[in-house]
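Throughout our pipeline, every protein is held as a single compact record rather than as scattered files. Such a record has a labelled line for the sequence and another for the backbone structure tokens. This encoding replaces a full spatial description with a residue-level series of whole-number codes. For reference, a complete record is included directly beneath this paragraph.
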Amino acid sequence: MFDLPLPIQPSTRPMGPVPGALTVTPDPSLPFALTRMNRTPAALMSGTAAPVVVERFTTLAEAMQGALEHAADNGPDAAPQLLVILDCDQRLVLAGAASHGAVAWCHPVANALEARAVVTGAVQLRAQAVRATDWHEPELAQRLRYRADLLDARLVDPLWRAFAARALQLAALRPRDRGGLGEV
């Protein structure tokens, strides 16, 4: 279970596209897409909150480095953000919580039994979030939903599980001066 010291704070910056910002069209032929959640009110209310592609990369290592750069651009006082790396078939490769200029990568589940336990835990957290909302505790509900999202982030596609776990091991062996390449 995750017990991350990542307090969820209300964000003062817009959650959707920034008006007037330079938009870069990612090359759709590159196999790895770094994405973030689409938390615009319209997307949430319509149920179409598909991930927003931040950038596309040739290799997983480049995508992980891109996630670090994205986290560094957010600044130290930005709310934690879930970043997800997807392959060209939209399968989950790796995910992590970006906060304070670093990314805490969620270690992928090892097998189907662990995946079922993670799904059960995430469902229970979301049920607790619904109860917290009913009790007029929106901050608690938001934290519970975020913890459930972090659990879901461990549900790497079976095709990528061993590869992602090895990538995290290699990233952990790098010198810490690059920062933020830890695991959750």
